[in-house]
Amino acid sequence: MRGGIIYILNICKYNKFMIDNKAFYKLSYGLYVISSISGGKKNGQIANTVFQITSDPARIAVSINKQNLTHEYIKNSKLIGVSTLSIETPLEFVGKFGFKSGRTTDKFSGVSYKTGESGVPIVLDNTASWFELKVEKEIDIDTHTVFIGKVLNSELIKDIDPMTYAYYQDVKRGKSPQTSPTHIANKNNPVKDMPKYQCSVCGYIYDPAVGDPDSGIEPGTLFENVPNSWECPVCGVSKGKFKPLV
Ligand code: FE
């Protein structure tokens, strides 16, 4: 009987906990290209969990999914390149490093980069600043590893606002917030109520009011009028992979 009461008390205690997924939306992040090297091969990927841990010496933490090729490379070489993307970064560039695998494509093809003193590649395109890290510690967190790296070199390339994850999600991917200049500019646009289309592969939303200026599609272009040669600016699939957003 006594055990039963404790059991009920425990249930009540644990019921006080509740995870509201929307709470996570208020965490803020940047958008970065994380690069590494292994056996002479280089790879890079997009990550948003990059943050400075200490200042003297300067250390930066980077969280990477264990399934990613870049994770394997970092584990092998203990070297990391971090490029902070600027707010002007086109979606195609994010898609190239974010939605394609280095196992099947050379992500550095056509991309401007340099080789750091340690040998790690550092992406320069659309980069506001970069860091070259030597991994000092690794923390195993189930699906991810948090790599803590000492900063070997760093440089501010362009004094421009960095891309934030929120800006990327809300503005660059077409889900323009009401406070954005894009939204205000389109207030009286006759296409603002026309259907949006969503990529079935990566979730990118094509909004006719916003268009895809990075690919030459002007704001105000209905999805039907987008050329068939147009590809998803994030993951690169064809227009046919888009479905009306209901
Ligand atoms: Fe896509």
Spell out the key features of this protein.
alpha+beta, seven-stranded antiparallel beta sheet, 12 strands, 20% helix, binds fe (iii) ion
In short, what is this structure?
This protein has 246 residues and is α+β, with helices and mostly antiparallel strands. It has six helices and twelve strands. Fe (iii) ion binds next to loops.
What do these coordinates show?
This protein has helices at 2-15, 21-24, 69-77, 91-98, 165-172, 181-185, and strands at 32-38, 41-47, 50-55, 58-65, 79-85, 113-115, 121-123, 127-141, 144-156, 197-199, 205-206, 242-244. The chain has 246 residues and is α+β, with helices and mostly antiparallel strands. The longest helix has 14 residues, at 2-15. Residues 175-188 have low confidence and may be disordered. 20% of the residues lie in helices and 31% in strands. It is globular and about 55 Å long. Fe (iii) ion binds next to loops.
String of helices and strands? HHEEEEHEHEEEEHHEEE
Query: What class, by secondary structure content?
Result: alpha+beta
**Rg measurement, Å:** 22 Å
Give me the count of strands.
12
The gross shape turns out to be: globular
Approximate strand percentage:
25-35%
What can be said about the biggest beta sheet? 7 strands, antiparallel
Kindly report the oligomeric state of this protein: single chain
Q: Helix share of residues?
A: 10-25%
Termini separation (Å)? 54 Å
Bound molecules: fe (iii) ion
Low-pLDDT runs: 175-188
- State the helix count: 6
Q: Strands of the biggest beta sheet: in what spatial order?
A: 2-1-5-8-9-4-3
Mean pLDDT, rounded to whole units? 86
